[in-house]
Amino acid sequence: QTSSSELYVLDYGAGNVRSIANTLTKLGYSFKWISQPEDFAKADKLIFPGVGAFSTAVSNLRSQGLFKPLQDYIASGRPYFGICIGMQILFKDSLEARDLLASTIGGTENEGALTDEANWAGLGLIDWEIGKFVPKGKSVPHMGWNGVTFVRDNAEPGQRDGLSETESYYFVHSYCAPYADDPRISSWANSVTQYGEEVFVSTIKKGNVFATQFHPEKSGQAGLEVLRAWLESATNAASGQDVPQSAARSLSALKQNVDGFRKRVIACLDVRSNDQGDLVVTKGDQYDVREKDEASGRQVRNLGKPVALTGRYYNAGADEICLLNITSFRNSPLRDQPMLEVVRKAANEVYVPLTIGGGIKDTVEPDGTKRSALEVASEYFRAGADKVSIGSEAVIAVEKMMERAGSGGHWTGDGTSAIEQISRAYGRQAVVVSIDPKRVYISPETSPEDTERYSKETVVGASSLYTLETEKGKSWWYQCTMNGGRVLKSLSAVELARGVEVLGAGEILLNSIDRDGTGLGFDLDLIQLIKSAVSIPVVASSGAGNEDHFADVFQKTQVEAALAAGIFHRGEVEISSVKSRCREHGLKMR
Ligand code: 1PR
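# 1PR complex -> structure
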């Protein structure tokens, strides 16, 4: 061991570790990466920002010879901070590995690794199994901001280790450590969080081990405080030789007041090159991003610089920020260095989740080099993205799956789609599918087959939640589009949503070409239709014109998140006023 205090961060080569790096730099700490087994001996403090899937983490650690040294490091009593999978890996094992094995993914490079039972097992420090959320009355993954409640009575009420019962933290996971009145788990649990009816362990603290299920590096100022407190206080303590703990509260006592899941307000930036070749934030009306005025030469609307706007929205309290490269279908994203640079710089300034979309697909570069969607996504994750959003490619994947299944057949993936590849490596929660539906009004000319086919998914005027004057007496269904609405498909938005959930998407970003940029409010019919078709979270998008539209969509459709672009870019509505209006309606907001 070195005498100077060496902080190390464990990176086994998956997911967004740049965020934690940026956060440490922001807090004024220098650190080194663990790049080989020998590095553990040099570390005085260790952070493991585990991202991705449990079994991928375990098999990567094993194949790189890092598993045993990590186990030895923790046993040595030196301070350890685990984040997300970095917390789950302390447990005996996880249902996630078994689920992955049982899933119908064929011919994957992971399959061999998974059939080896060693790769199901975690470090085994905590004799408890990581379970899975049940999607009953709530979406899974648990994605968003939630509170914490301390398991033991608090000397300093409401606050401990930089962690506060009045703040919220960013969670993103489908698997969790269920809390129970059993010392095997209650002796390790420091705080719990409630999601729906389920109470799970949100932080672990014992001896030299501290771990969070949430992402402190993505939890804004509140999260930075948790990291800062640990960095300032972390001292050696042999595992298990802790000061005697006061009694843990029972599950029933904890369950009463801890459900603090917040609705998310997301700012979205559509990014593209303007005619001068500069990357700008633009905004369309029904996806047309050019100035209406012919005299101006129909220039691409320029609403600002992506990095500057991202920083502005972070400071204004955005719960998440979404950057969409809206013309990426035209060129190779891996050669699109300016966009990657935007992501890198944005990730340097914001400590809330960043979603990056556009061009996540298998590509062939101009020199003939093939790049898989997974490689493209990995590049974005390394640049600082937390989630990637897939648009056009998702439509193709679902069409193929439906073709394979034939009529009445079982929908199942074949392991080759971008959604499957990325969710296998990084976890379902890292994969968003962006849907660009367009209304198709049913007219007397609509063929009987079409009317029949979509009868179940057709919104009839009378059943509409929110009919505008111009829509009265009409019926319609929602058609999928690709390439920013340029290509129309026969697939319906409901089929697409159901299909991508089967393939492994963790969230749906639901746009509406009809409402985009109109300020008429979200298309509540569309949102309700999709929300009830899937059990993954849905982000409502397109059409927000004022604060009430947010309160409306949250109350009437149960979506977890709502996104806007134009009103924020033009400074017409502030994120803070959206949140206050929602609070007035009794909604929980960060
Ligand atoms: O197909 O995987 O390369 O992804 C391309 C991505 O770019 C998709 O997510 C697609 O939705 C998006 N996109 C493509 N063309 C456009 C366009 O506007 N011409 N933008 C576009 C989609 C919609 C939202 C917008 C909301 C809210 N933009 O991003 O932010 O509608 O706007 P509002 O609050 O102003 O109403 P691929």
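# post-check
Residues 264-584 form a domain with the TIM Barrel fold (CATH 3.20.20.70).
Confidence is low (pLDDT under 50) at residues 104-109.
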